[in-house]
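Recall the central idea of this unit: under ordinary conditions, the amino acid sequence of a chain determines the structure it adopts. In this exercise we apply that idea directly, starting from the sequence alone.
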Amino acid sequence: MTHYKAGVIGWPISHSLSPRLHGFWLHQMGIEGRYDAVPVEPDELGVFIGKLADHGYAGVNVTVPHKQAVMEFCDRIEPLAKRIGAVNTIVVEGDGSLTGSNTDHYGFKQNLVQSGKITGDMTKGHAVVLGAGGASRAVCTALEELGFSTTHLLNRTVEKAEEVADELGGAIRPGPIDSAADLMDGAGLLVNTTSLGMKGQKPLEISLDRLPETALVTDIVYNPLMTDLLQQAEARGNPVVDGLGMLLYQAIPGFKSWFRPKEEPQVTPELRDHMLAAL
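Accordingly, the structure predicted from this sequence is:
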């Protein structure tokens, strides 16, 4: 029987929930395989990636701080990942070459779509994205695909937002995070891509007073599951989607490529409970 091996690389990596996630599907489907968290120092990245095939890997996920640096070690990068400027999934092809892709975009989009809470009416308004870090690039491209004609990308350092807007192109309007309260008016969707509100981080302080009650509010933070932002939004009647689904859905394409399951892995209430037990 073929034994498949994959993993996630980062520095540090002990906090990663990916082994728990992939382990659940491997066990559920009875697949002979393993998925490990592998600490890789930035200086060692090129050497490690160069030996993936030699070490028997079918591929790896890539997390901070390697998502951009790893691109130079891939033989091929899918167009979307090239546009986003980050790779979070690498597949070792049959000939040993490496293909890099970005599934954060897929994860974010699927989380909203599968929640059943995003509607066509919402896309008639604009989207407001808080934070211009790596995740914001995947989020902005997903919003474009979902049909939002304008996305306001707001960041404490406006230059960072301008850089993302320039590199991605499309209808992304960069601005200061202080302008968020004014931009709530007429928004169809609000997304937090910063780490504010995460366990151990400062809270995200923002006024939702002018946000339409029909606007969807989502947060890519999933620990805690219901961040202050989501609690505040839910209390005033807005539909909300938590960030755990993004983590779960982004894992599907990699799992399918590495472990070759007979059927598509599913995001189920049992899987969510299994993951939440670790938070």
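Residues 36 and 260 are 17 Å apart (CA to CA).
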